[in-house]
Write a structure and sequence with these properties.
4 copies of one chain form a homotetramer. By secondary structure, the first copy, chain A, is an alpha+beta fold. Helix content of chain A is 31%, strand content 27%. Chain A has 17 helices and 23 strands. Chain A has a 7-stranded antiparallel beta sheet.
Amino acid sequence: MCGIIGIYDTENRDISKILYYGLYALQHRGQESSGMAVNNNGFIDYHKDLGLAHEVFSEEIINRLRGNVGVAHVKYGTNGEPNSINAEPLVVGYKKGALAISSSGKIINAEEIREKLEDEGTIFATDTDAEVVANLIARFHKDDIEMAIVNALKSIKGSYTMILMTTDRLIGVRDPYGMGPLCIGKLGKDYILSSETCALDTIGAEFFRDVEPGEMVVIKDGKIKSIKSEKIYDKKFCIFEFIYLARPDSKIDGVSVYLARREAGKLLAKASPAEADIVISAPDSGTVAAIGYAEQSGIPYAEGLIKNKYIGRTFIEPTQELREQGVRLKLNVLKENVEGKRVVLVDDSIVRGTTMRRIVGMLKSAGAKEVHLRIASPPVMDPCYFGLDTTKKNLIAVEKSIEEIRESIGADSLEYLSLKDLIKGTGEEGVYCTGCLNGIYPMDIHKN
Amino acid sequence: MCGIIGIYDTENRDISKILYYGLYALQHRGQESSGMAVNNNGFIDYHKDLGLAHEVFSEEIINRLRGNVGVAHVKYGTNGEPNSINAEPLVVGYKKGALAISSSGKIINAEEIREKLEDEGTIFATDTDAEVVANLIARFHKDDIEMAIVNALKSIKGSYTMILMTTDRLIGVRDPYGMGPLCIGKLGKDYILSSETCALDTIGAEFFRDVEPGEMVVIKDGKIKSIKSEKIYDKKFCIFEFIYLARPDSKIDGVSVYLARREAGKLLAKASPAEADIVISAPDSGTVAAIGYAEQSGIPYAEGLIKNKYIGRTFIEPTQELREQGVRLKLNVLKENVEGKRVVLVDDSIVRGTTMRRIVGMLKSAGAKEVHLRIASPPVMDPCYFGLDTTKKNLIAVEKSIEEIRESIGADSLEYLSLKDLIKGTGEEGVYCTGCLNGIYPMDIHKN
Amino acid sequence: MCGIIGIYDTENRDISKILYYGLYALQHRGQESSGMAVNNNGFIDYHKDLGLAHEVFSEEIINRLRGNVGVAHVKYGTNGEPNSINAEPLVVGYKKGALAISSSGKIINAEEIREKLEDEGTIFATDTDAEVVANLIARFHKDDIEMAIVNALKSIKGSYTMILMTTDRLIGVRDPYGMGPLCIGKLGKDYILSSETCALDTIGAEFFRDVEPGEMVVIKDGKIKSIKSEKIYDKKFCIFEFIYLARPDSKIDGVSVYLARREAGKLLAKASPAEADIVISAPDSGTVAAIGYAEQSGIPYAEGLIKNKYIGRTFIEPTQELREQGVRLKLNVLKENVEGKRVVLVDDSIVRGTTMRRIVGMLKSAGAKEVHLRIASPPVMDPCYFGLDTTKKNLIAVEKSIEEIRESIGADSLEYLSLKDLIKGTGEEGVYCTGCLNGIYPMDIHKN
Amino acid sequence: MCGIIGIYDTENRDISKILYYGLYALQHRGQESSGMAVNNNGFIDYHKDLGLAHEVFSEEIINRLRGNVGVAHVKYGTNGEPNSINAEPLVVGYKKGALAISSSGKIINAEEIREKLEDEGTIFATDTDAEVVANLIARFHKDDIEMAIVNALKSIKGSYTMILMTTDRLIGVRDPYGMGPLCIGKLGKDYILSSETCALDTIGAEFFRDVEPGEMVVIKDGKIKSIKSEKIYDKKFCIFEFIYLARPDSKIDGVSVYLARREAGKLLAKASPAEADIVISAPDSGTVAAIGYAEQSGIPYAEGLIKNKYIGRTFIEPTQELREQGVRLKLNVLKENVEGKRVVLVDDSIVRGTTMRRIVGMLKSAGAKEVHLRIASPPVMDPCYFGLDTTKKNLIAVEKSIEEIRESIGADSLEYLSLKDLIKGTGEEGVYCTGCLNGIYPMDIHKN
């Protein structure tokens, strides 16, 4: 789903460092590539490559990237081989000068538009949606840049949030359904745009407000203005942001991710209680819901699995042989806590089920008497067409009944949170895209 | 305190990979350098450098390191500039062939012995204790290697655990006070030596037993034998291993680190209760004690601080200016959880107090009504002479009274666990070195 | 001027390695960046980056790049900061699939076309001429690819040679003036295209023939066909290729570079004799002409300057202070050879004069009695608009008379080869662009 | 044979940069590893690793290495796998403080001394002679450092030159036979020690004098003093330094390497003339002798082979298959120069003959009518025990007669320079070790 951030500075700040720390705060949204572009008096300099922010940027590069407007990006890798050419921000030149785009989400008619553009003789250097958008904007170069973007967006459909940097402006857009998150912060009197509020906290900025569905905000010289899309639909925000994607310390459209997850845990405890001695989580994704489950049920919360925090991207993976010999890298069981115990194991979701099978096996080997698996979201039954990396083929809930899943994972019981409770936990109703959970998408999908 | 691991394989395993995963499990014991030496028919090949295991070892190097006996090391950096020359295992040649040593702890009369050896015309290529020990062993080369080690150890004093690899043996030693941890595992019928049991779990080995204080174990061809030191003192195990150093999923001399920390949290709640709405921990070090505190007190456990997990060794640190502008990298407050709340904040220990001051400030800014700081160990009042990186100068508890510390940190109340309760939590009494907490060391120290 | 090479393989060769060795042979034509694209059943994979071929390509990457058609490139850096985005081959998608372009030379109306394309809404991701050409080709996608290229080329003007790779063809083009070199080789029954014949020798291919001015050759399945441009002008090959750019072991349009340079040296000796004891060259560029000068004049050839061959791209340059203290990195004088001698110093050309001043100074300090500077080409008086990195500002011959140059360099005499003799040395007349020597360019230039 | 350089600075120079440029000038003496140690008020800091100087040292490291005395080293790789642990300078601590040693040559009784030291309980961390010497010096630590070195050297035998850095002195030693080169330069009023004079030229220093056989020079605070060994033998300088090892622009013990090689070429032309059209060299080693041969014979000198100068250490070598298909990387024939010609091909020496066979083959394929091979030194018939990497097994002249060598190489004639003429060319008689040419070594060798 990618992480994006942009700043328009009027007070001579070291913006490349600020963006770098912002990327670091948004790194959970994408680990495939990192990039940054800055505008230095109309000349856009940039750097991007495969890797985490701290791998891609050296002090030397950060010091080179000087300017008063900047935009940065971390990419969530979805299809095919990672290729540095697809790293963002996309930086291109067009009639009106340079344009940089950091995008998140998925434009579902991008392929269609791409074909139309190709019919007109357009070439494409990358596989990104951002390049499609840039071409559309360039088509309207006779308009003012703001109108050009408005016109360009008219033809695209899907889930998208974008931060664009022109030669003199920083522009944020959120699709008319508001499917992805985008917020505005203030650093002194200057404005910042970011996927999540946690990046604002990290760089010492204040939360200002969320960008609204179908809104475009234009920032220039310390001023902000808002342009609304002609068509704005009922908000359909991605429910998976609350389940898994967003950081717990972020607040999206006024809802705290942490509180929504804890509430999901509590509602799960109410609807699906278990006779057990301890509540543990599958680290780190299940932790908040597990705490909620424990609080509601009165069963003590404990750590049952310890995660090794030193794993790096260049780590040498064990061979299948070594795995079979018992080498287990990321997680270790806390035998003392689970031996002889009836355990409630809480996780945020099950997609393919492989990791969960291994975890339950570890708990049982360590002497857990019973393992009651509780999932703080409904079964993932349908693919996401808006950027999340799930395909119909891998979804365990499509292939198996809940009882079959339980059996295959080896748990003593398995219960999922209902969609109704999941939504209730967020405090808002009717505002979510729940396509992957119930097959109801906010717009027509050309299913493949 | 360093992490050490060794294996004597008789079944043609891929031991360099096993050691690599072992180092990864022990990485919390040292991040300065990583190294590994393997014995291939009497020829010792090795690789070591500054950095984490996954940075130092590439697949190519791991594949090159082939043999049936191997020993590895991660170094806890203490004094001066990190220098790759001090990485271990130390590999040297002497009269009887090659010798590799992975050591942990601190020999307190190393300087004295070094001077005596220099008087005799010895040169030193490194600053390590291991080189001192290697020289002592080489002096006794006319003896059998086991006797040579026994004789060499007679003159050294301090806290040490070592794994030595000779041309045909793997040897583990633990000092006569048993100040540091060393355990034996079994992988099939083969023996493994490791600082902590968590490494055994990671590589799929079974725990066999701990090496005893003053014991030397010699492993050869799938057989193990034990040689006891003439002088064995009452065990004086480093209490800080339970407070902070060891991984919670390890068991040392029969005591679970997790249970000891949870019990510390419980005893802390009993002795130092607080009127509060939630219990949170300073991640990650205070988490287990915080869970115990919450369980005992009945106050709900919550996450109040979120730690960014993407920080790398090559990360660009913020300037002081950016820090003052509010850039906070490693931790973010969960405002929703702390706003308007009375918070119990639990950590394992306070050494210098700087981080704690920042955390309490963050909590207060986020709207915490009260912050009651509870420390699951007594004040650190005295230096450690046995390898822990604390010096009298930096210890806040030496310079300030508890009330002054509280004030300087900005907490509403501050209480420490008593030494008595700390020890009680481990379930064993009279077996600890508590020098840094009460100035009572197991042996005479030439204080500087 | 860049180096380009392409291959269409029908015999399952390891083409990425062949292209890699080809780039290595063409490395003298460009050191800024290196790149390669291969066609694997219609899917084009590629890798390119700043640096020499052996720095950019690892064995792993070369092994990954598998296919039956391939094209590669080394870039001669001209304007501005090196940026990896401008590395070639350019790889884009358009209506008919993937297209890769390796280009050399300079399209002088590229800026004009770029503006026209931007008017139509086109975006540009790079600063390369190749991207302009790709856009033009894509405009004609309804035509067959060969006609599309023919049509695209109609609007471009300048010096260019290109190798294009489509989903099923390898295509070479040379501009209608034939300003840059491009030849065809055979490897078994397969065809290869290359900037220079030295690359054919290196990879073990036979020279087949040169691509003619205004010719396009299309290679597919081991067959070659030729398409001639409607407009073909009198050949105007860049004379600087013979002076400096090409490798001496290449043969261009039937003329041996070595023989042309040696002949230039001989004619220089005839027209500008000197009373001297030895002939030396400024290594390595002046060596061939110096050998010719020595042979003609009967004055013995000797080495007067030794060049250090270990300099690397990452070398730390000396500060100005160290230079003034006498640190001289690349060249050392052979005092024994020049002391007390009257020296003829031969070089291929003088552009800015700084290096030559230093060299003459070194020779004088080493005791040379006289230094007679002989240049195997006429003064560079005008800028090159076709890709050579000379601007009017830096040209010493523009600012100073020959006598002033001599004085500023400190030589005892200075003579240049006449343009007539230079051309005579190549054995062909009326076929050269001599713009930088006499201001006569083959086409109208919009001078800046 | 390694390259060594040291400086004692009294004028606050940037000595790490000066040493770096010195290493670069001496790089031809060793490409396995590079290293440097500097003395900063008694504290010795250093850096060394496998690789060329420009690969091992970054600007950051060079800037870190600050001090007033420094010593540096490039290692010529001989035995076994390159291992960074054997890089020099060796830096150790002993009773009197720190000691750094850069050594060159081979101590032939090092193994014997090593065993004796091991008997006394000494350990060794490296395989270097320098560590043996350091141990011997440390044994005499009660003496003044100068006497300690004098005493240590009494027991070693072989070819050696060394630069030692103590806490307050820079010391150069040359063995009593003067087998290897070592000279003294002056930079302002400060002294420099270097393997060859070319490094002095590079860093802008003046040649002062050569260190004499059996001499030890001690430099301190801008003063130099000389200590002579009790035993000084007739000088036996390595003749291979003149044949191949030294750089042509160096002068050793008063003899110019260039002039010696040119004279060898001339004497070769006199003794072994050939009816031919051109004289060419095997680049770069045969160039100087070829120039001499051409001058003496009156046959024109020409370039017949062009060497690619872009090869790097990380270059991907062609497979045997590609070699057989004609891929030739380092050299290309200048067909124009050799086709139809009778060629004299001059090289400095033949060791194994493989490269020469390939070169002659290339010349013949390119159409050379005859190839007359002339070698500017006698056949290499015996191993070198003093550091040169030749073993009896690989020597073609041991296995074959000259006629057989000629046949195997494919030359039309083959002649070697006589030993008498070789020595005559240097202008000095009776002062050379010619062991590898005639089996007469200056000292008893325990032949293996």
